[in-house]
Amino acid sequence: MLGISIFNGLVYGSLLIICASGLAMIYGLRRVVNFAHGALYMLGAYIGYTLSLYLNIWFALLLAPLAMGMIGVLLDKAVFRPLQERDPLSVLLVTFGLLLVIEDLVRAFWGRGSLSIEVPALLADSIELFGNPTPLYRLAVIGLGVGSMVLIWAWLRFSRTGLYVRAASTDPLTTAMMGVNTERVNALVVGVGTALAGLAGVAAAPMLSLAPSMGADVLVDSFVVVVIGGLGSLGGALISAILLGQVQSFGTIYLPGLSAVLPFLMMIAILIWRPSGLAGNRV
Amino acid sequence: MNTLLSFDKVNAYYGNAHILHDFSIDVKEGESLALIGRNGVGKTTFVNALLGQAKVRSGSIRLGRKESARWHPYMPAKEGVMVVPQGRCIIANLSVEENLLLGAATGRKGYWTVPKIYGLFPILRERAHTPGTALSGGQQQMLAIGRALMGNPTLMILDEPTEGLAPVIVDQLGDIIRQVNEQGTTILLIEQNLHLVARVSRRYLAVEKGSVIAEGIVDPEQIEQLQQFVVV
């Protein structure tokens, strides 16, 4: 029982970290509190659904995030960039409006009913892990979470572009002064962040049913993760996603009445202890 | 001599505040020019107009062969103009070496490489992997200069580099800036510290109320004659 709870917590934590790291990156560079992030996660799942019908789920896992990445670049150019001089509150409202628009578009294209994606045949079985039957697909989701974190970390830490991203997240003007086209860096990061939301959406799809409102819970939990981790910090987000995954998983079993508020209780407790989040202000 | 940078009757604003009034300046290739003046006369606004951070409503700014009234902050670097900003602006979450690598973002090739910068400022090599902002003020200024040199500039603009530094460090930096100029990089020094101007610059422009009001040759023996432009 204990093992299963920890395992399920890790699965949810992995999805959260993929989704929340995108949110954290977009906030880190654009200083945009993106309420549409959950809707983008949902849109990723739906695009993945259609791709899995016409091709198969492997293509869906690959192409849906790519498509979402392109949508992200467009989002940056069409929305975030023109609004960058506005106050954060009005940008927040615009992203909230986007959320509603995306949900309605999805309802119009895919209908209101819930849909589902089949678990890929290759990963449909379960294996015995620490004495518990463990679905391979869920194991693969943890692998996906770990893999994407390692890739993002290596990208930020070792590549040229990663250096520019880190620099621009603390001091965009000086970074530009050195010759970095920070607008292009911003578009890229919003693209990557949106692709991550989409990736989390497709990866989650075979474990639950698709509905236009499916982004709401993930959005709230991703915000909790980003706030607990320290706004814009990926390392902090990683730790808080793992924590939140466990809290959710154990909460539903041992404190079912409280499970909906547990993330917020956890957030309050951590913010009292460290007001600027686990990682402070580092990226 | 070629003109690297010229402002022709530029009028620049922050919002509705009119800061630069018909501001004109020509920087010639190879020279070492000082822009002097009191606080608040528009020296930094000149840099901000070049970086597109102050709004230019009339006049034109020419860099090399490019002319425009609206520059984006990343464009001057691509044309070979690197700025050592006021207050140094070392990036806090990058190491010393990463700050230097950031300076090479344009990919302009030339004399300056990371080892060459370490040769110029050996202390930076010792502290290569510490966060840039963990350095002392003087070392941060060295890093800011090194970072600008990494862009292999034809023109390096230094905005009040001596602010808050001890006199012995100021002299050290002055010698290095002169050395960089002698190697062929054009220098535009924005300063109130005439001691440094005497050490580094050969020509000066004096700014008051947003316009250039005087210019001439810097005579280190009679530097006190320029006091009138910087003393309140």
TrEMBL record, chain A:
State the source organism's domain of life.
Answer: Bacteria
Location(s) in or outside the cell:
Cell inner membrane
Q: What does the record say about its membrane topology? A: Multi-pass membrane protein
Which BP terms in the Gene Ontology apply to this protein?
amino acid transport
For the keyword Ribonucleoprotein, the answer is no
Signal peptide region: none
Task: Give the GO molecular function terms.
Answer: transmembrane transporter activity
Q: What is its main location?
A: membrane
Q: Name one GO cellular component term.
A: plasma membrane
Which UniProt keywords are listed? Answer: Amino-acid transport, Cell membrane, Membrane, Transmembrane, Transmembrane helix, Transport
Query: What are the TM regions of this chain, as residue ranges?
Result: 6-25, 57-76, 88-110, 136-156, 187-211, 223-245, 252-273
The text of the family note is:
Belongs to the binding-protein-dependent transport system permease family. LivHM subfamily.
List the PANTHER family hit by this protein, alphabetically.
ABC TRANSPORTER ATP-BINDING PROTEIN, BRANCHED-CHAIN AMINO ACID TRANSPORT SYSTEM PERMEASE PROTEIN LIVH
Name of the protein: Amino acid/amide ABC transporter membrane protein 1, HAAT family
Organism source for this protein?
Marinobacterium lutimaris
TrEMBL record, chain B:
Which UniProt keywords are present, listed alphabetically?
Amino-acid transport, ATP-binding, Nucleotide-binding, Transport
Q: Name one GO molecular function term.
A: ATP binding
Please identify the protein, giving its name as recorded: Amino acid/amide ABC transporter ATP-binding protein 2, HAAT family
Residues forming the ABC transporter domain are 5-230
* GO BP, one annotated term: L-amino acid transport
The record's listing under Pfam families reads: ABC_tran
The entry's family comment says: Belongs to the ABC transporter superfamily.
**Is this entry keyworded ATP-binding?**
yes
Q: Which InterPro entries match?
A: AAA+_ATPase, ABC_transporter-like_ATP-bd, ABC_transporter-like_CS, BCAA_Transport_ATP-bd_LivF, P-loop_NTPase
